[in-house]
Amino acid sequence: MGKRYERLDSIVKDICEGVFSLVRIKKKINSMKDSNDLIYIGNELWKNMAEKGWRCNSETILFLRDMIYKANEQTRKLSTRDSLTGLFNRRFLDLKLKMQLASTYRNLDDFFSVIMFDVDNFKKFNDIYGHNAGDAILKTLSGVVLKNLRESDVAFRYGGEEFFILLSDTSKGDALDIAYRLNRQIADMEVTFVDEKGNDQRKKVTISAGVVEINREDPIWIWYGVGGKKLVIDYVKKVPDFDKLLDNYLRTYSGNRSFFSRWGGLSKRNVKRNVKKIGDFIKFYSVENGVDIGDISIAQGATSWIVKNSDNLMYYAKELGRDRVAYNDGKNSKILEKSE
């Protein structure tokens, strides 16, 4: 880190010690590509101009301003995009899911769906043909995904060979149509790449996908509701007389517009069922990630719940032979058949 800034400070010094002009600035930074370096140099030049009271022509000032702005935009883009596929990355997925959940919670008549899929036998491709093959597959699939989405839909590279698609205002049925279309388009095409030996290859690939719809009936909203997080944590920690706590919760919040009235009211049985579902997941999440249950934020728990359910369905599809689309019909996991 120190050597990097020594190099950048040297460039700034060279610019400032000579005739401070637009021509000199452009000459010194002409070959620079790193947006963070350009931001640093731009800010240092501004600081020198202010401290030394240099008078610059408007063209130089506009150039520096635009350079810093464009470099900041590039940095922002790189922080949210996967460099290989051009899709959004996992960090941005967390943010978008949190925003979608908050929006849906404000109006529980809304709904959205997600698709999670990964490439079947991806490790085998990498082992046999090399990482060029894997990269070519991921790039090609990303292009197919983007061609099948609406402007309001967002696609992410979740990690490795896993992809995640967020479909706002989309029912499970419509999401299944999209997932099936992706599944068939990818299965019917061939990916071209050059293997480690320099040979041209054309190979078929398939994907396995899981589809989840989040709507007003999803158990996740007990976690969002007023007092809901405390109730879930009490359940996980096996607080004595939990049924009494549940009765008090229902009496306190059943008429509260921020939760129950938008559901049309919930029975004790349904609330207890939802608390158990979310509570069992939150307990698993806290153990798996080594965090205290009380430190898990509502948004963090909710986004993890969606990803976990999607991931479970995706692997259910793999277990039944790969090249499948799986979903939950409200009771059981099922595989989408072409006739559906």
Which key features would you list for this structure?
single chain, alpha+beta, six-stranded mixed sheet
Helix/strand layout:
Blueprint: H1 2-17, H2 22-29, H3 35-52, H4 58-80, H5 90-106, E1 112-119, H6 122-129, H7 131-147, E2 154-159, E3 162-168, H8 172-188, E4 191-194, E5 200-203, E6 207-214, H9 221-224, H10 228-236, H11 242-253, H12 268-289, H13 298-319, E7 325-328, E8 333-335
Parallel strand pairs: 6-7
Antiparallel strand pairs: 1-3, 1-6, 2-3, 4-5, 7-8
Helix pairs in contact: 1-3, 3-4, 5-13, 6-7, 10-11, 10-12
Order of strands, widest sheet: 2-3-1-6-7-8
Outline, from the CA principal axes?
Answer: globular
Strand content: 5-15%
Q: Which assembly state applies to the chains in this document? A: single chain
Overall average pLDDT: 87
Major beta sheet summary: 6 strands, mixed
The number of helical runs is 13
Helices and strands, in order, run as HHHHHEHHEEHEEEHHHHHEE
User: Low-confidence parts, pLDDT < 50 over ≥5 residues?
Assistant: none
Distance between the termini: 57 Å
SSE class: alpha+beta
Q: Tell me the number of strands.
A: 8
Describe the model.
This protein has 340 residues and is an alpha+beta fold. Helix content is 57%, strand content 13%. The protein contains 13 helices and eight strands. The strands form two sheets. It has a six-stranded mixed sheet, with helices on both faces. The protein has a two-stranded antiparallel ribbon with strand order 4-5. A hairpin with a 5-residue loop joins strand 4 (191-194) and strand 5 (200-203). Helix 5 (90-106) packs across helix 13 (298-319), helix 6 (122-129) packs across helix 7 (131-147) and helix 10 (228-236) packs across helix 12 (268-289). The protein is globular and about 80 Å long. The mean pLDDT is 87.
